[in-house]
Amino acid sequence: MDGHHLILGKLTDIITGEILNDTHDERYRQKIAGLLINGKGYERHDIVPRSRIMAVAGEKKAMLHIDFLVGPMGTKGMIIQYGPGSLVTRHRSVLAMSRLVEPYQIPVVVVTNGIDADILSGSTCNVVSHGLETIPSKKELADLIRKNELKKVSAKRVELESRILYTYEVDGACPCDDTICRL
To answer: How does pLDDT run across 98-109, given as a tens digit for each residue?
Structure first.
């Protein structure tokens, strides 16, 4: 066992070609990566897997990961975060991530358990669609980025969102979760 995940062997990352631990969670992430490349028209260079993000709450700091940071034309316009179980319980922390990963608000926020997905508007926080099949295609995301202004996130908002992210993802995490690096 590694952390709290059962290691089933090794697998090859669809996006990077890296060899990763084969876990139930990683199988779902690879399914999502396959959907992006084979079903939604993204190219491997449009997707950054396992991006790191810093969460800060006062003196406390931690590095977390974003499963997929996606953007055609070099502009990141969507984040996808996988987590087993309920989707709605993850909305707020993933919205916080969408305000911290770039200096602007990421417009499309996807929360998924690998079977279902909620697609949220980063700016309104509203669920705009349900289901993996409704994740925007490369063309749809490119059109959305072109048509909308990417609004800068204020320093105050960054501070507040970072505290929210820390509270949800670090304070509430299982002590054996080895995907969080507490600093």
So the answer is: 999 999 999 999
